[in-house]
Amino acid sequence: MMITDTIAAISSPPGPAARGIIRLSGPDSWPLAMRMFEPLSAPPPPRRWIPVILKPSRIPAGALFFRGPASFTGQDVVEIHIPGAVPLLRRILAALIAAGARSAGPGEFSSRAYINGKCDLTEAEGIAAAIAATNAIQLRAAQSLRDGRLHQWTLRQTGALADLLALVEAGIDFSDEPGVSFISAADLQGGIRGIQTQIQQLETSAVNWQSTAALPTALLIGPANAGKSSLINQLSRQDRAIVSHHAGTTRDPIAAVMHTSRGQIRLMDSAGLEDSDHDMYRAMDQLRRQVINQADVLVLVLDPPHISLAAEDLLARAGASAGMAWLLVYNKSDLLPATSGVPERRMRVSALTGEGIAELREMIAAQCFAAAPMAAEYITLNQRHRAALDAASQHLARAAAAIGGDHWESAIELVAGDMRSALDELGGICGIVSNDEILGRIFGRFCIGK
Ligand SMILES: Nc1nc2c(ncn2[C@@H]2O[C@H](COP(=O)(O)OP(=O)(O)OP(=O)(O)O)[C@@H](O)[C@H]2O)c(=O)[nH]1
Ligand SMILES: [Mg+2]
Question: pLDDT averaged over the chain?
Answer without folding.
Answer: 83
